[in-house]
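[Discussion] Sanity-checking designs against the backbone

I'm trying to build intuition for which residues belong where. Below is a C-alpha cell string of 190 positions. I'd appreciate it if someone posts a full sequence so I can compare it with mine line by line.
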C-alpha cells in the first residue's frame, strides 16, 4: 500500500499559507511585511480585520485536519497517522512554497488534534478560550493550551505515539513563540 504518501502530501498541504493567500485575494498587505510579520490569523486580524482572520484561521485549521482525517478514515497505522499530522504541522511552520518561513502553528495544530480525536481538539480550543477570557492575550492562550495538549492526548486518546506527536508539536509551537514568551515575561505582550 502507498499509505506512506500521506506524509509528503500532508507536508505540501501544510505548506500552503492561508494568511498570504487570503491577504493577496483581499488586497491586503503581505502579512510577513506588516504587523508582527507572522503569516498567521492573529497578524491577519491586525492588518485586515475579523473576516480575513477567520478565513485564515479556517484555512490553517483545515490544512492540519484534512490530511489527518483522511489518514484516519483509511485506517492507516497509528505511526503513519502521527507522522501525517506532524508533516502537516511542519509544513505550516516551514513551507516549501514560501522560503520555509511560516507561521507559529496554532490553528494547524488544532486541525491536527481534531484529526487525531475530536475531543482532543475541542479540549485545546476550550483551554484557549478559557485562558483568553481571563487574560485577553492570544499568545498566552495558545501556549497554555499547547502545553496542556500532550496531557489531554494521554488521557483522551491514550496512545503513546499520538501523545508523542502532540508533544513534538507542543515543543515546536513553544519554540516558535519565543518572542511572545519574552514579551509576556517583560509584560509587553499585546
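Best answer:
Here's mine. Compare freely.
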Amino acid at each position: 500500500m502507498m499509505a506512506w504518501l500521506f506524509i509528503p502530501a500532508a507536508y505540501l498541504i501544510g505548506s500552503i499559507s492561508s494568511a498570504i493567500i487570503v491577504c493577496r485575494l483581499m488586497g491586503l498587505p503581505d502579512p510577513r511585511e506588516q504587523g508582527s510579520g507572522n503569516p498567521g490569523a492573529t497578524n491577519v486580524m491586525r492588518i485586515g480585520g475579523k473576516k480575513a482572520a477567520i478565513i485564515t484561521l479556517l484555512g490553517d485549521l483545515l490544512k492540519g485536519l484534512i490530511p489527518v482525517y483522511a489518514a484516519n478514515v483509511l485506517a492507516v497505522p497509528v505511526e503513519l497517522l502521527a507522522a501525517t499530522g506532524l508533516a502537516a504541522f511542519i509544513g505550516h511552520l516551514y513551507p516549501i512554497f514560501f522560503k520555509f518561513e511560516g507561521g507559529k502553528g496554532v490553528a494547524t495544530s488544532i486541525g491536527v488534534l481534531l484529526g487525531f480525536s475530536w475531543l482532543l481538539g475541542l479540549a485545546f480550543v476550550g483551554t484557549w478560550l478559557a485562558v483568553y477570557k481571563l487574560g485577553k492575550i492570544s499568545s498566552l492562550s495558545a501556549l497554555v493550551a499547547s502545553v496542556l495538549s500532550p496531557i489531554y492526548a494521554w488521557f483522551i486518546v491514550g496512545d503513546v505515539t499520538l501523545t508523542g506527536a502532540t508533544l513534538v508539536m507542543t515543543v515546536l509551537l513553544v519554540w516558535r513563540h519565543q518572542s511572545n514568551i519574552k514579551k509576556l515575561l517583560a509584560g509587553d505582550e499585546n
